[in-house]
Amino acid sequence: MNYHLRTAIYLEENRYILIVSALTEKEVLEIFSEGGSLAGKDLTGLNLYRSVLSGVDLSGADIRGINFRGANLSGSNLSNMKSSEGILAEANLRDSDLSGSDLSDTYLMEARLYASDLSHCDLTGSNMSGAFMTGGVNLCDSSLVSANLRGADLSGAIIRKADLTMATLRSAKLIGADAS
Questions:
Q1: Phi and psi of 27, rounded to 5°?
Q2: By three-state DSSP, how is residue 81 classified?
Q3: pTM
Q4: Does residue 150 form part of some domain?
């Protein structure tokens, strides 16, 4: 398959950044539908709004600036990926492995993270307001510094050794959460 380069320009800290993605949205969906792996691929800045990619392997992928709003990524391997400033709001991430990922400044509002593994993640500055993180979500050893967890449901979550410095926990549910 021949791949075409896709470019996008973003404004970051008063300077423009040119991002070149090796794949287009169509090519990503084609690879997935053919059972191929997206592990380690560069998906920077793609718009995969409401895509159905359940069970996808995105381990080690670069998805910075991606739009996965409302996407179904349940049961996926998303470990060790780079997703800073990505949009995963309202995404279904149930039973997914996101361990070791850079999710700093990522939008995860109202994301469904039931029983997902978010251990050793960098969630610094992420907006996780209203997220559903029940069913034993694992946040062990994760950085949630300055994260917005307003109204998030962390009932039964495992938050041992998680750094919650300056995190917003207003109206968050922590019933049965394990912080020991």
A1: -65, -40
A2: coil
A3: 0.87
A4: yes
- 11 burial (CB, 10 Å; 0-12 / 13-18 / 19+) is exposed
In a domain, 18, yes or no: no
Tens of pLDDT, residue by residue over 55-82, are 999 999 999 999 999 999 999 999 999 9
CA 106 to CA 126: how far, in whole Å?
5
Place of tokens 């993605």: 21
Q: How far is CA 165 from the centre of its chain?
A: 20
Q: pLDDT tens across 84-136, in order? A: 999 999 999 999 999 999 999 999 999 999 999 999 999 999 999 999 999 99
Contacts of 23 (CB under 8 A, 6+ apart): 3, 6, 31, 41, 42, 43, 46
* Separation of alpha carbons 49 and 68, rounded Å: 5
- Report the domain count for the chain: 1
